[in-house]
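Input chain follows. Return structure tokens only.
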Amino acid sequence: MLAHLQRLITLSLAAAAFGWLFWFRGDSPVLAVTGFLVIALGYTAFLALEFVFLHHVSKQDPAPQPTWLELLSAWLGETLTAPRVFCWRQPFRMNVVPDRLAPAVAVQGRRGIVFVHGFFCNRGLWTPWLQRVEADGRAFVAVNLEPLFGSIDDYAPQIDEAVRQVTEATGLPPLLVCHSMGGLAVRAWLKRMRAEERVFHVVTIGTPHRGTWLARFGHGHNGRQMRLLSDWQAQLDHDMPAGRHALFTCWYSNCDNIVFPASTATLPGADNRLVRGAAHVQMAFLPQVMDATLAMLEHEPA
């Protein structure tokens, strides 16, 4: 569903931008080029507005305050990353790297991974990760969480099935790698299934563990669940077993334009790792994040 929607949005914007360019190119080249750029690059203004909100809202947050240079760098990074994800990988290349579960020698006995994407995303988000893990000969499943705007609790069966498949293929509990809302979906799964023993470790990247200020503009079920300090979030850790948060490594950024204030992406008792100057989607593809996360497959997390 999401791939179709993002494909429609991408093609519509492209048609509008090039249509404007060709319609006005003879009468007013300046107007033609200006309109083309406004349509094609208009999303950068919305990104800039998110960073303005981030700067204003995070002034009292205990996480390190971003410098203007860090904010500018993050804005540029997200400007380059967002089209690759939302206009190419997710709408057109979602299944370019299929799940790998074949019981080959290269898979059996080597720990696998379950990838869980975030809000308004699909498995295409993980393409660079999947290519790297596939080359390493490991088993993996990248889930597609649906319905798009449903309750986060309803994603638990999909995660449960993915964990089961990877465990059966490898004989080992998998590493779970989650971006944004995907980390909340895994926490909801852990609560529902009491599945701590079925997990090797959970890595979250820009997950709003305690909500995000920006979610006040979300009106879907999952959007309301991600509002700052929502009742739903408070219930996630109700009666949880001791040490559950020790299963988590939480990457967070002082320039996350979606999950802010920054400290809301951390968990008490987890291995919380700050990345300075990285935007929300950009953070998922930083070499330091990818390298350190995949290194956990070879070594127990500290």
